Amino acid sequence: MDNIIIPKSEIDKQKKIAASLREFCTGKKASVRTYGCQQNEADSERIEGALVLCGYEITKDTKNADLVIINTCAIREHAELRAFSGAGELKKLKENKKDMLIGICGCMIQEKHRREQIQKSYPYVDFVFGTDMHHRLPEIIFTALNSGKRVSFVSEKPHNDFGVISEDMPVKRKSDYRAWVSIMYGCDNFCSYCVVPYVRGRERSRSYDNIISEVKVLAAQGCRDITLLGQNVNSYKGEKAFPYLLSDIADIDGDFWVRFMTSHPKDASHELVDVIASNEKIARHFHLPFQAGSDRILGLMNRGYTKEQYLEKALEIKEKVKGISLTTDVICGFPTETDKDFSETLDVIKKVGFDMIYTFIFSPRKGTPAASMDRQVPREEQILRFNALNELQNENALKNNQNMVGQTIKVLSDGVNNGSCTGRSSQNKIITLDRPQEKGTFVDVVIVSAQQYSLTGRIK
What we know:
The chain is globular and about 60 Å long. The model has no long low-confidence stretch (mean pLDDT about 95). By secondary structure, it is α/β, with parallel strands linked by helices. The strands form five sheets. Strands 2-1-3-4-5-6 form a six-stranded parallel sheet, sandwiched between helices. A five-stranded mixed barrel has the order 15-16-17-19-18. It is about 35% helix and about 20% strand. It has helices at about 10-25, 40-55, 75-95, 110-120, 135-145, 195-200, 210-220, 240-250, 270-280, 295-300, 305-320, 340-350, 380-400; strands spanning about 30-35, 55-60, 65-70, 100-105, 125-130, 150-155, 180, 185, 205, 225-230, 255-260, 285, 325-330, 355-360, 410-415, 420-425, 430-435, 440-450, 455-460.
């Protein structure tokens, strides 16, 4: 992949277009709806930043918006259906407000069959743009406003030559004390069930200096919880390997936690575990998807490790990093999965004792190898396995949380919502506090009771 860094001249061009739009867009409102992962959330903050640059005021109320952008996910069919439903809801608004602009972007737009579906069935959508076109949003809006035609800004490059990195476009963060920082994009793993390499492109990493500079600014502004993002964040290939980037970020002045999402087991190195164990500013939370416990299924998934290799890494993390919260992703009902295969998955959950598992029923993604595999597991069986996974995990989660009762932990307050004051711990656990505490402040809390997926604490 050559020339993946968007040159400054292109960024300056977009800023110039944004300046020309401000006369028209100032006083108008824009709304961004986001579906999918944390990376989509981070992308939406960049989209909102560009919209503000163009003169728009950001609103959550789509009914009063002059422009609505739907940022989509393609990782599962359910996410795509939700995005289409969201787009469908805008049809009536458009009928009553003819000059309203509607755009759809994100992973789903990189899928040709979905673009064709939008073209055919959603004629009121004015523009679409792909996952590496966020920096061109001023140009996209300008074109949509002036061309009188439906507009498409989507890379037609093949997936092995697709993807860019753009810097120096504004970001409108939703929180002043929590922040996403993308450090790399794309994926080279090509798991047989996953569409990410096809819609996000190949792995590409931001420069070490740009990441460090962004985190320094956030820390100086008082940000308390910073999450490093990447489709496979610990495969970062900048000027330093990921463990040393993480260590350097933790050494930046400021009272904050640094997290990272999401990891691939093949890149969860001994060095990374040691770095986490040695620095309390690195959050005690490690999300390490294992997807399946059967070596045969892992091979079909092209995951690149065995059950025993995964267990070795997971148990090393729990042994070396005291108080760590270990979470994971699991797919149930993968093609050809037998009861014996599924029992291996249950065995991993029993041996590791995860704090949380995100369980998904296998969803065929068009264009991936798994979608055309024979012997798809019947839906009824998938649901039975899904329920069995959650039943087992509920027991683990409650046991882990009960073990925290009586401990004093540091909690970052999220303020009062719906009459309760809640916060999150370094382990990313939700804690209900006994009295109000200012949003974005750290407090020491004694855990007094435990539920399956939350805790109750008393501020010391």
